[in-house]
Amino acid sequence: MTKPYTPTWRSMLFVPAHIDKFIQSALRRNADAIQLDLEDACPPDLKADTRKEIPRIAQQAADAGFDVIVRVNRPWRLLVRDLEACVHPAVQAITLPKVPDGSFLRSVCEILDECEAQAGLPNGHTRLIAMVEDAEGLGNLDDIASATPRLYGVIVGAEDLAVSMRMAVDPDTLYVPNIMALTACRRAGVAPLGFIGSVADYADQDKFRETVQRASRLGFEGAFCVHPTQVDAANEAFSPDPEAVDRARRLLATYEAEMAAGRGACTFEGRMVDAPVAMQAQQLIERADAIEAMTQRRQSKQAE
Asked: What is d(CA 294, CA 304) in angstroms, rounded to the nearest whole number?
């Protein structure tokens, strides 16, 4: 499998794929990725016609400099048709709802292999985002997170999970499932996505900002946004602070100089620095560099 382009999506803005005015509005926002929704936001009687429009809409978004994700339907008869329509050069990833286990992802990958070959795309072009939305998926998180190299990340779907677990949707009930997902992602080396809360709570912008900032501190890397007002808060929360990045570069330079001199630890700005502290600084720098590279890629596409 060819190693695909690996983005660093901080904000993935949902857009109903059948409403052109919402699509045009989204293209004026600053989301890292436009997520065209064929699932819940698209009425059943419009799915077939909307599905046919995905390549055109995806290319329009790509031409505007956006990465494109499509959320598809879960029932197999709809899913297969969605996958066939959504494998396209302008579509970087597909979000799969209600993923029960790793075998489901591997079955999807077989279909993607065939679709990519037919479309003349490199094998592995189409990444996957797995939504864990019920008790079965929650019990198979490690299996899901390690199922395929196509997997970009995993996110917990709060509303559907609450139905399955017969629980409320609040920070208390969602904390453990989200931390379980984050831990499984780190074990498997894929992106932990989401936050401790419901994506539908967009009216209180200050609260949402606090929620995504908390998610960033916990180790999440990006989030779904259901409203354009959430995009800037997500981008800010999941971006390293420039001053912190500058400090990390200076810390790492000091540490590496001390290591070259044969010392195992050093002091930087009054604090001890050993290998774990240096590694945290390196991770911060790498994330900042990845976001910068993604931003430059988008600007280059817009300039074409």
From this structure: 16
